[in-house]
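Listing S7. Sequence submitted for prediction.
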Amino acid sequence: MGNNNKSTEKNVMKKRLNIVIIVGVFILSNIVFFYLGSAFTSGSIGLRNVSEAVAKDVSEIKDVKKYDLLFEVRENLLLRYNGEIDDNALLEAAIKGMTDSLNDPYTLFMNEKEYSSFVEQISGHFVGIGIQVGIKDEKVTVIAPIEGSPAERVGLKSGDVILKVNGEEMAEPKLENTVSKIKGEAGTSVDLTISRGEEVLDVTIPREEIKTTIVKGEILEDNVGYIRLSSFDEDSAKQVKEKILQLKGEGMKGLILDLRGNPGGSLSEAIGIASEFVPKGNVVTYTIDKYDKKQEYKSVGGDAQGLPLVVLIDGGSASASEVLTGALRDYELATIIGTKSFGKGVVQQLINLKDDKGGLKVTTSKYYTPNGENIHKIGITPDIEVTIPEETLNKEYDKSLDTQLIKSIEVIKEKLK
């Protein structure tokens, strides 16, 4: 009976994995990235009803003769190299060489261990230092530290650039390389050298279990509601809906939705949250792939239609946060306040490789706001730009000093007049 339960749990986990397309940035716990999407491919790609363009690509895929050289090199190394050779290491290096050659920081191969870390993320286990990172201006950059994480406690900030990990320079802006060196077991630590403007800082950060509260909310002054969403994780749309209904029951007349430092996550959750505000049937976002195939994602309707709304964003608001913000902006359903968002407008699909030999994360499409804007490497500019003074950032968070929140309350009050 116990074995049957374990088998059932494993099947449930595989079903959960069957609904992801990656669009988030990397999160540095023992998992390495967030996901955004609704399609997952296990094994090889289905080839029925393909277009001529796809058929051409398939014919090139089947032409493996050119890879004879790869096997010739392997054979010569195994026969002639005067030293120890790990054949599995040769294979992994060859595969990673393929993905590296694309010069796309979001396309990568994961070995079994790395892929297992992803499964841990899906099951809700987080171990690491607790930061989200991405590529910005060709540099590995901190998007945001997770609230309450070791990274936040030592003072890492959005915009910090990672120069060294344990004394080793990160010469090339490859997320995979940096992430693998920062990851580790709970109870250990990692030394980072970062640049912050003109400053170069060395910090030691412990690795530990990361516990996050996805949705927080309360009533502020004058019946102004406030919801903070830290990521688009499983059930976050349900939690936001419940929080909206709770705050409405407490007399909420307008809402501030705080997406600052939110690196993204599940597309289905982003659509679910957008549906609370966007009229049913309206497009929230759409994607276009290499074959010009367009996929639309529409609102299913919700409980906050017509509610006066302000959305807070900053440089740590990425991917799914930008999907939600872009839709609310394009339909003029919210006033956007803060600073420019991160700017990640490409979609990655996660492919579970045959025989559970690892996973492949590959950029497959771009996503667009309802008005047709792709914000990749551009970001979303707020309607009202408000920065937080540097001296405030260096202090423990105090709501009364949060200039962006203060401005949001002012704007909501004006909407309620």
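Caption to Listing S7: primary sequence and predicted structure tokens for the chain studied. DSSP finds twelve helices and 21 strands in the chain. Residues 128-209 form a domain with the Pdz3 Domain fold (CATH 2.30.42.10).
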